[in-house]
Amino acid sequence: MGFAHNNVLHDNHFRKDWQRRVRTWFDQPGRKLRRRQARQAKASTLGVRPLSLLRPAVRAQTIRYNRKVREGRGFTLSELKEAGIGRKEAQSIGIVVDHRRTNLSEEGKKVNVERLREYKARLIVFPRKAGKPKKGDSTGDDLTAATTRSPIAIPDVYVHEAPRKITSEEREAKAFRTLRDARSTARYAGIRKVRAAKKEEEEAAKKK
């Protein structure tokens, strides 16, 4: 490296022993196996608990992705109330609660209420003391029933239609014109209401 003119000399450190300070990751496969074994040991000690917490089925955000249905953060208080599950009870049996979320449609609420009811029907709560079951604990044949740890799948809310021919009414319909008319009606609804009220007042005044 050459230097010319009256410039500041470089202070580059080219003689550091960097090979000794490199962070290697050669133990990654061993760590992966160790984590997996730890998960299996933890699952065996927990018994027949579900593999994951129950979460609601919600629509993805924005117009681009709102056709997709995915797992949300937690169930709303109104969904829990309609399914007959208390807030504290829900948290104790593996149901996630989100007090900030609100329901924007009856269809979405119905889907999640059915999801909660299905989960509650499948749920087996083992009593801490076999001779003294508390309120909400399973008893009798439920304790000897076959158990599963598989989570409840997200429902397919899309209604699939069989292919058919386009009708003459659908062919003649003008979607753009319909949308513009609806927009105009909503936009001038207030003004037209005021005009109609004013006209009625004038007609009533004339009759007097």
TrEMBL record:
Record Gene3D superfamilies:
1.20.5.110
Q: Which GO terms describe its biological process?
A: translation
Question: In the record, what terms sit under GO molecular function?
Answer: RNA binding; structural constituent of ribosome
User: Which superkingdom, per the lineage?
Assistant: Eukaryota
Q: Which UniProt keywords apply?
A: Ribonucleoprotein, Ribosomal protein
Task: Kindly state one GO CC term assigned in the UniProt record.
Answer: cytosolic large ribosomal subunit
Q: Quote any Pfam family the record assigns.
A: Ribosomal_L13e
Family label: Belongs to the eukaryotic ribosomal protein eL13 family.
Q: Name it.
A: 60S ribosomal protein L13
What organism does this protein naturally occur in? Ephemerocybe angulata
According to the entry, what is the taxonomic lineage of the organism?
A: Eukaryota, Fungi, Dikarya, Basidiomycota, Agaricomycotina
